[in-house]
Design brief:
alpha/beta; binds 2'-monophosphoadenosine-5'-diphosphate; six-stranded parallel β-sheet; six-stranded mixed β-sheet
Length: 293
């Protein structure tokens, strides 16, 4: 890893607010991007108690920050402190990136949406015109569904154990119809590993695995991978463990796949671009995450 750039009187400030935040991989990734771009800037992790989020966000403009990322558990709560929300943030119902504008106003954006889409696209499948199945209906799933709709997917199918939550996402996408063109949306219950459903799995081009099933443990799978067609591209959002049982099964079937660290990388690149209006060195940021090609 290259030496850090010296901190000067002009060093520009960016960072991430979370609670807890010490485990975050973003400081290593973003500082590598800043170094490679030769930007006199530093990215720091800030542990912000939920009850003090408003004060912390207001502090960004007082302290002259360029902007900041927002992570768990603050992504939804951060919305109310923004002066402007981008369509992605509105549709995702969450802010993960804040930019302090020249007049001091705060723009809330969501690069998780774009991150999920770019991760799949960087592995060779464009989202435009495709049928995408999203597994799960939590915050991550809502971001992915928003990202796919904004990227021009033809059809977004949201499947969740609690079907009411999948319906909420679909209702939100439908309500934003004018922004989204003609995306067709459906909600289904995810039961019996996807076997008991009216979905025609052979029509699904991309599956985005956005549930927490398989996190920190090898074992359970959210759906039966055997239902998927040979052309289907799998995106597994979990990156710990690096290979979930579901991802391993899909890979053993020869399906095209994308791992969770790719989304972390792509959302980070999109945030960097949002703040500095320049493309960062993808290789430097990827290496800082310890991610293979
Ligand atoms: P995040 O904000 O990261 O998306 P979350 O809001 O807790 O996290 O969402 C977790 C998702 O994983 C939900 O869709 C959840 O399904 P429910 O809405 O029915 O709770 C899904 N999930 C968690 N454990 C599951 C399990 N054992 N089987 C199926 N789905 C599960």
């Amino acid at each position: 890893m290259s030496e850090p750039l010296p901190i000067t009187g002009r060093t520009r400030l960016v960072g991430v607010m979370g609670w807890p935040v010490s485990h975050s991989k973003s400081p290593a990734m973003q500082n590598a991007g800043l170094r490679a771009a030769g930007i006199d800037g530093v990215y720091v992790a800030m542990a912000v108690e939920p009850s003090r989020l408003g004060e912390a966000v207001q502090g960004l403009r007082a302290l002259g920050f360029v902007g900041c990322n927002v992570t768990i558990p603050h992504k939804a709560a951060a919305m109310e402190f923004m002066d402007l929300l981008t369509p992605a943030a509105r549709l995702a119902g969450a802010v993960n990136t804040i930019r302090v504008e020249a007049d001091g106003s705060l723009t809330g954006h969501n690069t998780d949406c774009e991150g999920a889409v770019r991760a799949v696209e960087s592995d060779g499948t464009t989202i435009r015109g495709r049928t995408v199945a999203i597994l799960g209906a939590g915050g991550a799933a809502r971001g992915a569904a928003a990202g796919c709709a904004l990227a021009g997917a033809a059809r977004v199918i949201v499947l969740n154990r609690t079907v009411a939550k999948a319906r909420e996402i679909v209702d939100q996408l439908r309500a934003a119809g004018a922004t989204l063109g003609n995306v067709a949306c459906e909600a289904h219950e995810l039961e019996d590993l996807g076997r008991r459903t009216t979905i025609d799995w052979s029509a699904v081009d991309v599956v985005m695995q956005m549930t927490s099933v398989g996190m920190n443990s090898m074992g359970p799978m959210p759906m039966d991978a055997g239902l998927l067609a040979p052309h289907c591209h799998i995106f597994e959002s979990i990156y710990s463990p690096p290979e979930t049982t579901f991802l391993a099964r899909c890979r053993s079937m020869g399906l095209r796949s994308t791992e969770g660290l790719s989304m972390l990388l792509e959302q980070g690149i999109a945030s960097f671009e949002f703040w500095f209006e320049t493309k960062p060195d993808r290789k430097a940021m990827r290496e800082a995450l310890g991610k293979q090609d």
